[in-house]
Predict the structure.
Amino acid sequence: MESQRILEGIRVVDMTQYLAGPTVTRMMAEMGADIIKIEQAPGGDPSRNYAIINDVGRSGYFVQQNRGKKSLCLDFDHSDGKEILLKLLSSADVFVENYGPGVMERRGLDWNSMKDLNPRLIMASISGFGRDSSMSDRPAFDMIAQAFSGTMFMTGDPQGPPMPVGQSIADVMTGVHAVTAIGYALFHRERTGKGQFVDIAMVDALFHSQELAVQGPSLTGMKWKPKRSGHRSRINSPLGAFKGPEGWIVIQCMEAQWPRFVEAIGKPELLTDERFADLTGRTKNREELNEIIEEWMQGFENDQQILDTLVAARVPSAPVLAPYDAIGHPYFESRGAIREIKDPLLGTFHIPGDPLHFSDFPDPLELVAPTLGQHNENILKSLGFTTNEIVQLSDNGVIKSGDT
């Protein structure tokens, strides 16, 4: 018999949309939580109409982020809709929201209101600049956070403009930080019985990953400042992307690997070459060293031969893969990092898998994304509403449903 899932029995009221917030509840759904996704009537989460949509109007973007959730589509600005929402929140374990500045406060759904309604509730709020900050009133999306956190400043060619990362890294990293905070808040509640407010900012989540770019200038009195390094490192060598006969290969050779690396490329004399004898020299003379490496790489027929040579020497290296190269790749398949799912409307397709692995739960849950308002009746009946009352709510436009 399978063990109880880690978050089984935990009810989450999910008032999130697009990506940062849904990432939180997506990961919680994978751990068995009961996720009730509140979608504002009449259209619901805007991501239902975002990105790639097939001819029946179903968004793969929405499906990927909302599998395993129940959809309750209601007008929470209507007094009856607000009453339903408050009933849910009064007994919920977790409340997650990522609306714009002031939205929760104007509706009386902010933490000051929630802690009186349900003292055991854990409320997680996700925003660009945090709910408690000098810039809390500013709206933000992923690229805004990338810019303000310094991520864009550090990304791109040294002579070119700052570049965003080619994926919604701020949204997803913020979601993962929020999942961590919620987990510890639940642990704290187990010990104290008290809920609390979790305030997660996208800018903070990205800024937290700056490993050298803050402490370096601070330690040197601003004499050393980081610069964009493009596809090669400025502070270590050899480190970066190198052109192989077919594609690009990343090599990250630290001090311990240097002797093995020079043997692997057939250049043992580099160990005693004063230009490359230590890290300072290798960094200073990195352009010369990079030319030696790429010349060596061009002597192979294909990239795999290079990778096999480096792996045999235990030099950290990897091909630069496109995300879709993960489909069918042995590593991603073995880790469950790529998943083939079946959607009732979209059919079978691939999405990234759950990155959290637990020994008690080796098999992922088979989850399906809801259609709009799919669980209206089920949820409302669990709150004590009769069939006639539910019909009346529908007739009054308080609740909505749809085919996708």
Residues 162 and 282 are 26 Å apart (CA to CA).
